[in-house]
């Protein structure tokens, strides 16, 4: 009986060892091969716009009596580009000058009265109260003169607002009011832009292969003359995407653009040189453990999987690989939580990253 028990135990132990050493079953998996995105063929269409432009408007209400410039005309800094009827402002200046003259006359009278009271007080021919009243009248007259001077200065300034002057030299790009029209304060009369500093404005979609960042180099060419090209760099990126088109507006500063890059010309912007390969992985392939990202990499000769640590970064285009993987690697894209290190797999089909 003892011998039979020993034999039974040996057989049971042998069965456990065989069960422990049994290989993992071959699992069918979905996978994909990582391929780098080509960035040299990506293009965005836009227009040439000035970096500096402004809308000129009057600061006061009035009827437009003159606008000597039109769209396309060149203006110089300080040039008068519009006038409104100055009659009301001229009358206001005259009234302010009259009020100042009246206040100055009252001040002269008050000063003379004060001097007389001071002479009389020495001989006790008047009272101290009378002198105090004269001093108060003189101080009030001085305040009236100061107020009249301020009103005159304001009236003269308002009179100057009847003329609209260009803040800088540029070209007229739009007209917002015609002669004879009554314009309100702040209403745009002209739009002036500086043609010497131009930039390309393009809309970039979410499928752009590279993350948008300030300074990213582009080659910008005219659509009508593709051989005319200039280099540029991203100067400004819109903080939010358009709600309808889901594109972001990008402004590209141009390096010494030729005269053919006129304002409003249609241009095509491409990345100026081949960038480093961009690898993207689907979210279903990423296994996160303790703040670290991993993917299952399939070894094609052995059909075994191994857990590979990767560095990832998220942008508008998806999940971008920044380290740990190279182009051509085949990774598992489904069932990543049920795999084990070294397990044999069977590739069923490819899935798009």
Task: Outline the secondary-structure elements.
Elements: H1 2-20, E1 27-33, E2 43-50, E3 53-57, E4 62-66, E5 74-75, E6 80-84, H2 87-122, H3 128-160, E7 163-165, E8 170-175, E9 182-183, E10 188-193, E11 198-204, E12 217-222, E13 229-237, E14 248-254, E15 266-271, E16 279-281, E17 287-289, E18 292-299, E19 304-315, E20 318-323, E21 330-332, E22 345-350
Parallel strand pairs: 1-22
Antiparallel strand pairs: 1-21, 2-11, 2-15, 3-10, 4-6, 4-9, 5-8, 6-7, 8-10, 11-14, 12-13, 12-15, 13-14, 16-20, 17-18, 18-19, 19-20
Helix pairs in contact: 2-3
Q: What does this entry show, briefly?
A:
By secondary structure, the protein is α+β, with helices and mostly antiparallel strands. 25% of the residues lie in helices and 35% in strands.
């Amino acid at each position: 009986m003892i011998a039979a028990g020993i034999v039974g135990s040996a057989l049971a132990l042998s069965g456990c060892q065989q069960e422990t050493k049994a290989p993992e079953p071959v699992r069918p998996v979905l996978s994909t091969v990582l391929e780098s995105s080509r960035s040299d063929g990506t293009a965005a269409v836009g227009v040439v716009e000035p970096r500096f432009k402004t809308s000129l408007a009057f600061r006061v209400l009035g009827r437009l009596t003159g606008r000597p410039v039109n769209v396309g005309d060149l203006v110089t800094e300080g040039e008068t580009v519009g006038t409104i009827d100055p009659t009301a402002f001229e009358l206001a200046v005259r009234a302010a000058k009259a009020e100042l003259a009246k206040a100055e006359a009252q001040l002269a009278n008050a000063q003379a009265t004060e001097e007389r009271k001071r002479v009389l007080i020495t001989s006790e021919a008047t009272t101290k109260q009378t002198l105090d009243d004269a001093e108060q009248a003189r101080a009030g007259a001085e305040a009236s003169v100061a107020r009249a001077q301020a009103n005159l200065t304001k009236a003269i300034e308002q009179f100057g607002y009847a003329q609209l002057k260009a803040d800088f030299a540029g070209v007229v790009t739009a007209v917002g009011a015609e002669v004879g029209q009554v314009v309100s304060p702040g209403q745009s009369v002209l739009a002036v832009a500086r043609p010497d500093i131009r930039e390309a404005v393009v809309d970039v979609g979410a499928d752009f292969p590279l993350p948008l960042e300030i300074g990213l180099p582009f080659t910008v060419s005219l659509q009508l003359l593709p051989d005319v090209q200039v280099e540029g760099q991203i100067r400004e990126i819109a903080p939010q995407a358009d709600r309808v088109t889901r594109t972001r507006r990008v402004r590209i500063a141009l390096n010494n653009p030729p005269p053919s890059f006129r304002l409003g010309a249609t241009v095509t912007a491409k990345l100026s040189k081949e960038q480093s390969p961009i690898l993207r992985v689907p979210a279903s392939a990423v296994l996160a453990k303790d703040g670290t990202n991993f993917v299952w990499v399939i070894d094609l000769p052995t059909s075994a999987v191994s857990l590979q640590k990767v560095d990832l970064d998220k942008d508008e285009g998806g999940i971008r690989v920044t380290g740990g993987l190279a182009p051509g690697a085949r990774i598992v894209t489904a069932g990543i939580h049920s795999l084990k290190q070294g397990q044999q797999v069977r590739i069923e089909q490819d899935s798009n990253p």
